[in-house]
Structure prediction request, 212 residues.
Amino acid sequence: MSTEEIHSGELLKRAAAGDERAVNELFTLHRGRLRAMVRLRLNCRLHGRVDPSDVLQEAYLEICKGLTDYLRAPTLPFFLWLRHITGQQLIMAHRRHLGAQMRDADREVSLYRGALPQASSASLAAQLLGRLTSASHAALRAELQIQVQEALNSMDPLDREVLTLRHFEMLSNDETAVVLGIKKSAASNRYVRALERLKDILAALPDFADLA
Prediction:
Protein backbone atom coordinates (compact mmCIF):
# COMPACT_ATOMS: atom_id res chain seq x y z
CA MET A 1 0.00 0.00 0.00
CA SER A 2 1.37 3.42 -0.99
CA THR A 3 1.92 6.33 1.41
CA GLU A 4 -0.90 8.19 -0.38
CA GLU A 5 -3.29 5.28 0.16
CA ILE A 6 -2.40 5.08 3.85
CA HIS A 7 -2.89 8.82 4.30
CA SER A 8 -6.15 8.69 2.37
CA GLY A 9 -7.38 5.86 4.58
CA GLU A 10 -6.63 7.83 7.73
CA LEU A 11 -8.44 10.88 6.37
CA LEU A 12 -11.44 8.77 5.41
CA LYS A 13 -11.70 7.54 9.00
CA ARG A 14 -11.65 11.13 10.23
CA ALA A 15 -14.25 12.16 7.63
CA ALA A 16 -16.50 9.27 8.65
CA ALA A 17 -16.27 10.54 12.24
CA GLY A 18 -17.56 13.94 11.11
CA ASP A 19 -14.27 15.83 10.66
CA GLU A 20 -15.06 18.39 7.93
CA ARG A 21 -11.42 19.41 7.61
CA ALA A 22 -10.59 15.83 6.64
CA VAL A 23 -12.92 16.09 3.64
CA ASN A 24 -11.04 19.12 2.36
CA GLU A 25 -7.69 17.42 2.98
CA LEU A 26 -8.89 14.33 1.10
CA PHE A 27 -9.82 16.38 -1.95
CA THR A 28 -6.58 18.35 -1.78
CA LEU A 29 -4.60 15.10 -1.61
CA HIS A 30 -6.07 13.93 -4.91
CA ARG A 31 -6.60 17.31 -6.58
CA GLY A 32 -3.55 17.08 -8.84
CA ARG A 33 -4.62 13.80 -10.43
CA LEU A 34 -8.20 15.02 -10.84
CA ARG A 35 -7.01 18.25 -12.49
CA ALA A 36 -4.88 16.23 -14.91
CA MET A 37 -7.94 14.20 -15.89
CA VAL A 38 -10.04 17.33 -16.48
CA ARG A 39 -7.32 19.04 -18.54
CA LEU A 40 -6.88 15.96 -20.72
CA ARG A 41 -10.61 15.44 -21.32
CA LEU A 42 -11.85 19.02 -21.60
CA ASN A 43 -13.18 19.55 -25.11
CA CYS A 44 -10.80 21.73 -27.12
CA ARG A 45 -13.70 24.06 -28.02
CA LEU A 46 -13.97 24.97 -24.34
CA HIS A 47 -10.37 25.98 -23.78
CA GLY A 48 -10.42 29.55 -22.54
CA ARG A 49 -14.13 29.26 -21.67
CA VAL A 50 -14.02 26.62 -18.94
CA ASP A 51 -11.35 26.63 -16.24
CA PRO A 52 -10.49 23.19 -14.82
CA SER A 53 -10.56 24.80 -11.36
CA ASP A 54 -14.27 25.57 -11.82
CA VAL A 55 -14.98 21.94 -12.70
CA LEU A 56 -13.03 20.83 -9.63
CA GLN A 57 -14.91 23.27 -7.39
CA GLU A 58 -18.27 21.91 -8.58
CA ALA A 59 -16.97 18.39 -8.04
CA TYR A 60 -15.85 19.23 -4.51
CA LEU A 61 -19.34 20.47 -3.62
CA GLU A 62 -20.89 17.24 -4.93
CA ILE A 63 -18.31 15.16 -3.08
CA CYS A 64 -19.16 16.93 0.18
CA LYS A 65 -22.84 16.17 -0.40
CA GLY A 66 -22.31 12.53 -1.29
CA LEU A 67 -19.45 11.45 0.96
CA THR A 68 -21.66 10.17 3.79
CA ASP A 69 -23.57 7.91 1.42
CA TYR A 70 -20.33 6.74 -0.18
CA LEU A 71 -18.81 5.85 3.18
CA ARG A 72 -21.94 3.96 4.13
CA ALA A 73 -21.82 1.76 1.02
CA PRO A 74 -18.74 2.32 -1.18
CA THR A 75 -19.13 0.99 -4.72
CA LEU A 76 -15.74 2.10 -6.04
CA PRO A 77 -12.25 2.61 -4.63
CA PHE A 78 -12.19 6.10 -3.14
CA PHE A 79 -10.07 7.83 -5.78
CA LEU A 80 -12.14 6.32 -8.58
CA TRP A 81 -15.26 7.63 -6.85
CA LEU A 82 -13.71 11.11 -6.75
CA ARG A 83 -12.77 10.74 -10.41
CA HIS A 84 -16.29 9.63 -11.30
CA ILE A 85 -17.89 12.62 -9.56
CA THR A 86 -15.40 14.99 -11.20
CA GLY A 87 -16.03 13.37 -14.57
CA GLN A 88 -19.76 13.90 -14.19
CA GLN A 89 -19.15 17.60 -13.57
CA LEU A 90 -16.96 17.73 -16.68
CA ILE A 91 -19.75 16.19 -18.75
CA MET A 92 -22.19 18.78 -17.37
CA ALA A 93 -19.78 21.57 -18.32
CA HIS A 94 -19.67 20.20 -21.86
CA ARG A 95 -23.46 20.17 -22.01
CA ARG A 96 -23.81 23.70 -20.63
CA HIS A 97 -21.29 25.29 -22.96
CA LEU A 98 -21.58 23.27 -26.15
CA GLY A 99 -25.37 23.31 -26.37
CA ALA A 100 -26.38 22.32 -29.89
CA GLN A 101 -22.83 21.11 -30.57
CA MET A 102 -23.18 18.42 -27.89
CA ARG A 103 -24.11 15.79 -30.48
CA ASP A 104 -20.70 16.21 -32.10
CA ALA A 105 -19.04 16.15 -28.71
CA ASP A 106 -20.85 12.90 -27.88
CA ARG A 107 -19.01 11.24 -30.74
CA GLU A 108 -15.78 11.88 -28.85
CA VAL A 109 -16.99 9.93 -25.80
CA SER A 110 -15.38 6.53 -25.45
CA LEU A 111 -17.52 3.39 -25.48
CA TYR A 112 -16.57 1.70 -22.21
CA ARG A 113 -19.01 1.66 -19.31
CA GLY A 114 -19.38 4.86 -17.33
CA ALA A 115 -17.74 6.72 -20.19
CA LEU A 116 -16.16 10.12 -19.73
CA PRO A 117 -15.19 12.38 -22.62
CA GLN A 118 -12.15 10.97 -24.36
CA ALA A 119 -8.80 12.65 -24.05
CA SER A 120 -8.33 14.21 -27.48
CA SER A 121 -5.29 13.41 -29.57
CA ALA A 122 -4.47 17.13 -29.38
CA SER A 123 -4.34 17.00 -25.57
CA LEU A 124 -2.20 13.86 -25.57
CA ALA A 125 0.14 15.25 -28.21
CA ALA A 126 0.52 18.48 -26.25
CA GLN A 127 1.49 16.44 -23.17
CA LEU A 128 4.09 14.51 -25.14
CA LEU A 129 5.54 17.68 -26.67
CA GLY A 130 5.32 19.77 -23.51
CA ARG A 131 9.04 20.32 -23.20
CA LEU A 132 9.42 21.75 -26.72
CA THR A 133 8.63 25.33 -25.78
CA SER A 134 11.54 27.44 -27.01
CA ALA A 135 10.93 30.03 -29.72
CA SER A 136 13.30 28.24 -32.08
CA HIS A 137 11.15 25.12 -31.85
CA ALA A 138 7.75 26.83 -32.22
CA ALA A 139 7.20 26.13 -35.92
CA LEU A 140 8.58 22.62 -35.65
CA ARG A 141 6.40 21.92 -32.64
CA ALA A 142 3.23 22.90 -34.53
CA GLU A 143 4.06 20.57 -37.41
CA LEU A 144 5.18 17.80 -35.09
CA GLN A 145 2.01 18.04 -33.00
CA ILE A 146 -0.08 17.38 -36.09
CA GLN A 147 2.03 14.31 -36.88
CA VAL A 148 1.73 12.98 -33.33
CA GLN A 149 -2.04 13.59 -33.31
CA GLU A 150 -2.43 11.65 -36.54
CA ALA A 151 -0.32 8.82 -35.17
CA LEU A 152 -2.35 8.67 -31.94
CA ASN A 153 -5.57 8.61 -33.95
CA SER A 154 -4.29 5.51 -35.73
CA MET A 155 -4.17 3.56 -32.48
CA ASP A 156 -6.91 1.17 -31.36
CA PRO A 157 -9.36 3.35 -29.34
CA LEU A 158 -9.30 1.09 -26.29
CA ASP A 159 -5.50 0.85 -26.34
CA ARG A 160 -5.31 4.64 -26.51
CA GLU A 161 -7.72 4.90 -23.57
CA VAL A 162 -5.61 2.47 -21.54
CA LEU A 163 -2.55 4.55 -22.41
CA THR A 164 -4.36 7.71 -21.30
CA LEU A 165 -5.41 6.20 -17.98
CA ARG A 166 -2.05 4.62 -17.14
CA HIS A 167 0.50 6.99 -18.66
CA PHE A 168 -1.22 10.37 -18.47
CA GLU A 169 -3.73 10.06 -15.61
CA MET A 170 -1.30 7.85 -13.66
CA LEU A 171 -3.93 5.28 -12.67
CA SER A 172 -2.69 1.93 -11.44
CA ASN A 173 -3.33 -1.23 -13.42
CA ASP A 174 -6.01 -2.23 -10.89
CA GLU A 175 -7.72 1.17 -11.19
CA THR A 176 -7.58 1.01 -14.98
CA ALA A 177 -9.20 -2.43 -14.99
CA VAL A 178 -12.03 -1.17 -12.76
CA VAL A 179 -12.62 1.94 -14.88
CA LEU A 180 -12.77 -0.05 -18.10
CA GLY A 181 -14.60 -3.04 -16.67
CA ILE A 182 -11.98 -5.51 -17.90
CA LYS A 183 -9.72 -8.07 -16.24
CA LYS A 184 -6.47 -6.89 -14.66
CA SER A 185 -4.47 -9.10 -17.01
CA ALA A 186 -6.24 -7.58 -20.02
CA ALA A 187 -5.56 -4.05 -18.76
CA SER A 188 -1.89 -4.89 -18.24
CA ASN A 189 -1.51 -6.51 -21.66
CA ARG A 190 -3.21 -3.63 -23.41
CA TYR A 191 -1.00 -1.09 -21.64
CA VAL A 192 2.18 -2.89 -22.65
CA ARG A 193 0.93 -3.10 -26.23
CA ALA A 194 -0.14 0.55 -26.28
CA LEU A 195 3.16 1.72 -24.82
CA GLU A 196 5.14 -0.24 -27.41
CA ARG A 197 2.89 1.16 -30.13
CA LEU A 198 3.48 4.70 -28.85
CA LYS A 199 7.25 4.16 -28.80
CA ASP A 200 7.13 2.86 -32.37
CA ILE A 201 5.03 5.84 -33.44
CA LEU A 202 7.42 8.38 -31.92
CA ALA A 203 10.50 6.57 -33.22
CA ALA A 204 9.07 6.88 -36.73
CA LEU A 205 8.95 10.68 -36.42
CA PRO A 206 12.48 11.94 -37.19
CA ASP A 207 11.80 15.44 -35.81
CA PHE A 208 10.67 14.03 -32.47
CA ALA A 209 13.74 11.77 -32.25
CA ASP A 210 16.02 14.75 -32.92
CA LEU A 211 14.42 16.82 -30.15
CA ALA A 212 13.73 14.09 -27.58
In short: The mean pLDDT is 83. Residues 121-211 form a domain with the Arc Repressor Mutant, subunit A fold (CATH 1.10.10.10).
